[in-house]
Structure formats: structure tokens, C-alpha cells
Amino acid sequence: ADVVALPTVKEESKGGQTERDKLKMAIQEIEKFVQSVKRNLEFSIDEPSGKVVVKVIASDSGEVIRQIPNEEVLKLANSLNDASSLLFSAKV
Q1: In this structure, are strands 52-58 and 39-45 parallel, antiparallel, or unpaired?
Q2: How far is CA 50 from each of CA 27, 74, 79, 82, rounded to the nearest angstrom?
Q3: How large is the greatest C-alpha to C-alpha distance in the chain, in angstroms?
Q4: Which of 3, 23, 49, 60 is deepest in the core (most CB within 10 A)?
Q5: Residue 43 and residue 51: Cα distance in Å, rounded?
Q6: Is residue 30 predicted with pLDDT exceeding 50?
Q7: Are 22 and 13 in contact (CB under 8 A)?
Q8: Alpha helices, DSSP H only, in 1-92?
Q9: Model pTM?
């Protein structure tokens, strides 16, 4: 039986493309798909809670289609943080 060596990132593959080239092409395909569905992703941090917020936005209108976590969850988390700081910081 012959031993077949798998190509490393630096070696050429059968098609003459490196693994890095394949990765670049895959990223370009993903970018094309995201543009074709006309959506943008926006990442931010909610200041009061410190949570990462991801928004899915319609490219043409700028409308927020979905937010993760949603605004109600962020408000609840912030109010719970406020309540716990009041309850546990009170001196007896």
C-alpha cells in the first residue's frame, strides 16, 4: 500500500491552489451569499450589561430585522443588575 501525504497549508494541492487560496475563495463565497440576501450584521456591546449584541439589518432599508439578545432581555438584565446592587449594597 502506498502512503499518501496530505498537503500542508504551504504545499500546493492538486488544483494548484494552496489551502490559503481555498480559504480566501470560501470567504468570498460567503460574502457573496450575505450580499445576495441583502443583510448586514452589526456587532456592539450593551454598555450597562456588557453583553455582546448582534443585529441583523436589511441592507436596503436599514431596518433591524432581528437583535440577539433582544431589547427586552437587555432591559430585564439591566434592571436585575440594578435591583441586586441595591439589595446587596445596602448597609444594615
Answers
A1: antiparallel
A2: 29, 10, 13, 14
A3: 79
A4: 49
A5: 11
A6: yes
A7: yes
A8: 19-36, 71-89
A9: 0.44
